[in-house]
Design goal:
It comes from Winogradskya consettensis. GO terms for molecular function: N-acylneuraminate-9-phosphate synthase activity. Pfam families: NeuB, SAF. This protein is elongated. Strands 5-4-3-10-9-8-7-6 form an eight-stranded parallel sheet. Strands 1-2 form a two-stranded antiparallel sheet. Strands 11-12 form a two-stranded antiparallel sheet. By secondary structure, the chain is of the alpha/beta class. Helix 8 links the parallel strand 8 and strand 9. The relative contact order is 0.12. 33% of the residues lie in helices and 15% in strands.
Length: 346
């Protein structure tokens, strides 16, 4: 797919998405600052989430609406309260989108219901992301697909059958450009549960480009994902983890996001081809392999010994393994120190 003149797909430079989520901490100024640092870090896109507490759930204080007490980040919190705290007010969407476009970023969002899609269509969102928890909401997927915009589908917690149903629903509703994201929907996610080896399996199964929505700490896992074919990497962004925030504990700070941009591209460049043999970049190094050289001045008739012939750098003389064939022979002519040994000399 091509979004704002940037191609996203298998074999292409990794497309880096900075996820704002609730790390604006209830401040529009902070939200705009997150856009700025994402641009400065070199990300391609900034993503937000479009919902309100009322479009996500209902305000009921019952255990079924409550996160487990042992949850690492949001233990014991009620869903309504969490979404009320974390949501991005709809009035902020337009200034966030405007700032992103001014800074050369592509702004887009994860909508969670029809009203969110309607808002984002008014803002001319260039693509949509289906969040992991919404992968079974096939009507929402069909609605997003019906816009004709590229669709990114995250697969945290999903079975193969659920992913297939989501992709089929998107295609059936008219989606032509789909990226599926491998994801572990745990916050933060333990690296050992990331299962990067499933990336090529997903690519083979669904015949679409595969990316990574990553919630591990740091940038090691997403960089490694590039070697498995990840073409898009999404990471949460915060100005400073010490400031707190809904997702700040597992989010990248600006310096880490900048490092991810640089190092993921290096990893992609390093994939190269399957060719074995000297590369163009190694031509100079080939000159400095070892070979046999005369290492002291000699005269015709002198014996070839370990003192006057050695394997040294650079190339130009006989191969090092020829030493057993030349020791004990005699020089046929004078030779100065630094002369490559050849069969004509002995």
């Amino acid at each position: 797919m091509i979004v704002n003149d940037v191609e996203i797909g298998a074999g292409k430079r990794p497309y880096i998405v900075a996820e704002m989520s609730g790390n604006h901490n209830g401040s529009l100024d902070r939200a705009l600052a997150l856009v700025d640092v994402a641009a400065e870090a070199g990300a391609h896109a900034i993503k937000i989430q479009t919902y309100t507490a009322d479009t996500m759930t209902v305000d009921v204080k019952h255990p079924r609406f409550q996160l487990s007490q042992g949850h690492e980040l949001w233990g014991g919190e009620y869903l309504y309260d969490l979404y009320e705290r974390a949501h991005t007010p709809w009035a902020w969407h337009e200034p966030i989108f405007e700032r992103a476009r001014e800074r050369g970023l592509t702004p887009f969002s994860s909508p969670f219901d029809r009203t969110a899609v309607e808002l984002l269509e008014k803002l001319d969102a260039p693509m949509y992301k289906i969040a992991s928890s919404e992968i079974t909401d096939l009507p929402l997927i069909r609605l997003c697909a019906s816009t004709g915009k590229p669709l990114i589908i995250s697969t945290g917690m999903a079975s193969v059958q659920e992913i297939a149903a989501a992709v089929d629903a998107a295609r059936g509703a008219g989606a032509q450009e789909i990226v599926v994201l491998s994801c572990t929907a745990s916050y933060p996610a333990p690296p050992e549960y990331t299962n990067l080896r499933r990336i090529p399996v997903l690519a083979e199964a669904f015949r679409v480009p595969i990316g990574l929505s990553d919630h591990t700490m740091g940038i090691g896992v997403p960089i490694a994902s590039v070697a498995f074919g990840a073409c898009l990497i999404e990471k949460h962004l915060t100005l400073d983890r010490a400031d707190g925030g809904v997702d700040s504990a597992f989010s990248l700070n600006p310096q880490e996001l900048a490092a991810l941009v640089v190092e993921s591209e290096r990893a992609w460049q390093g994939l190269g081809t399957t060719a074995i043999g000297p590369t163009e970049a190694e031509k100079e190094g080939l000159r400095f392999r070892r070979s046999l050289y005369v290492v002291t001045d000699v005269r015709a008739g002198d014996l070839v010994t370990e003192e006057n012939v050695r394997s040294i750098r650079p190339t130009g003389g006989l191969a090092p393994d020829a030493i057993g064939l030349v020791l004990g022979r005699t020089f046929t002519q004078d030779a100065a120190k630094g002369t490559p040994l050849s069969w004509e000399l002995i």
